[in-house]
Each structure stands twice: as C-alpha cells, then as structure tokens.
Amino acid sequence: MDEAETLGDRIAIMAAGKVKCVGSALFLKSQYGVGYTLTIAKTPQPTAEQSRALDSLIHARCTRAERLSDVGTELTYRMPFEESGNFPELFQSLEQQPERYGIQLFGVSVTTLEEVFLRVGRDHTEADIAADERLQQASFVRQISAEREERAMNSFTQAVEEMRRSGGSQMDEPLTEARRAESSVSFARHVRAMLVKRFHNARRDRKAWCCQIVLPLIFLLVALLTMRFAGIGDYEAVPLSATSLPGPQRFVAGFGESVTSAQVADFLKGASLDVEQ
C-alpha cells in the first residue's frame, strides 16, 4: 500500500468483486474520513485528572477528534482533515504544559492507505450484515404469511370435510361426474391449443416446413422415378472355364457304374485336364 500511495496517480479499491472507490490517495483519505493520527506518549503513571484534562483539551480544539486506542502509556486519536487548522493551538498547548496533561511527547502522522483499505472493507461488511438482516426479516415475514395461509387452508379443508359428512354420499356422484367432464374438456382444449400452436409455428417457419414435408416428398419422388425408368441392361455372357483360374486345379467328378469311357471322354472334351481314376 505504501508503494501504491507513492507511485499511484489513481488508486482503486475493490470489495466483493466490485470497485468501491477510485481516486488519488488524498481524495480517498478525505472521502472516507480517515485524516491524521495523533499519537501521544503519556508519563508512566498519569493521574485521572491529567487524563481528563488532556481529553478535554483535544476535544475543545478539535471537536471531531476520535479516540482510537489507550493502551499503556500510548494514546492515539484520529483527527479529521477539516480540523487541521486547529492543530497549531493544540500543539502549542501540549508543548507549553506537558506536566499538566501528563505527557512526554507527541507526534502526528498522515493515515496510510492501509487504514483506508480496512475502512472500505469494514463498511462493506457492515452493509452485508444489514442486507442479511433485511433478508432475515423478509424471510420471517414470508414464514408468517405461509403459516397464515396454511391455517386458512386447514380451516377451509375442515369446512369442506364437514360439508361432505353432513351432505352424505348423495353429493359424491355428481361431483365425480362433473370433475370427469371437466377433465375431458380440459384435455381436449389442451390438444386443440397444441395443434393450433404447431400450425402457427409451421406457418411462420417456412424453412422447417420445407425440410420436414417438401424435401422428403421430393426425395421419395426422385427415388421412385429412378426405379421406374432405370431398366436392367443385357450384359454379355461370360464363359465359365477352369483355364481362367490360376495354377492347376483339382476337380472331383463322380459317375455311375453304367457310364462308359466314351461318355467320360465326351464330358471332358476341350478340357486340358489330367484324369485320375
């Protein structure tokens, strides 16, 4: 933070992912009311009268001074920037009468950006706490409303049950028929509404209508025409011969007992085969 105060022309401070303030170091200090820090070193055992006199003097000269800490012999005050014009009189009184106020020495320093950063974070935390409280209050109100609605519903249910018990079973059938009739009418109304909705959607979206209806019909028509006019051609017969097969081939043929050698020779005519019997 010291480097940012020394080198930064404009400084931005974020809290919970949001930029809370942007500006120069002096602007941020004045905006968040940090100001100066007055540190006073008291005597080892100051009296109560000396402490009261010192506090009265500081608040008389700087009405908006705020005590930060009083630990041991060290006393710290926060002095706003607007009170800087009253510092000479205050310092002169402290220098002239140190025994009266029970002090040894004092010093003034400008508040660092670290305190500004902590102040911004503290303000953000307080805002979150306030928001949580509002949410809790709203949740409490909703809970009360829900309880009231539940009590009203329970009362209504009890009243209906009492009416049913007092009316007997004569009311059951008409109510059931009316409920069924209403259910069927409601279902038909829903179907009609869905069909009307689909019709209007298809009418608006012409591309989808073409892709779903027109293009499939065109493809089907083209396929039927192709099958109708593309005839099967007559191809040249390919003779079947064992000579077209690579290398020697072995075939097994079986003949009956009454077959003569002339018939076998006639069967194997034109084939360059080695016959084994």
What can you see in these coordinates?
- It is a single chain.
- This protein is α+β, with helices and mostly antiparallel strands.
- The protein has a domain at 2-114: 2-Layer Sandwich (Alpha-Beta Plaits), CATH 3.30.70.
- The chain is built from nine helices and six strands; from the N terminus they run αββαβαββααβαααα.
- The strands form two sheets. A four-stranded antiparallel beta sheet has the order 4-5-3-6. The protein has a two-stranded antiparallel sheet with strand order 1-2.
- The mean pLDDT is 76.
- This is ABCA3 protein.
| Count of strand segments | 6
Quaternary assembly = single chain
| Arrangement of strands in the largest sheet | 4-5-3-6
Class from secondary-structure proportions = alpha+beta
H-E string = HEEHEHEEHHEHHHH
What kind of sheet is the major sheet?
A: 4 strands, antiparallel
CATH class of the domain at 2-114: Alpha Beta
Q: Which whole number gives the mean pLDDT? A: 76
Report the total helices: 9
InterPro entries: ABCA (IPR026082)
Protein name: ABCA3 protein
Organism: Symbiodinium natans
Transmembrane segments: 208-230
Give the tags.
two-stranded antiparallel sheet, elongated, 277 residues, Alpha-Beta Plaits, alpha+beta, 58% helix
Give a summary of the structure in a few sentences.
The chain is α+β, with helices and mostly antiparallel strands. The chain has helices at 2-7, 25-31, 48-61, 87-96, 98-101, 113-167, 172-204, 206-229, 261-267, and strands spanning 11-15, 18-23, 36-42, 66-71, 74-79, 103-110.
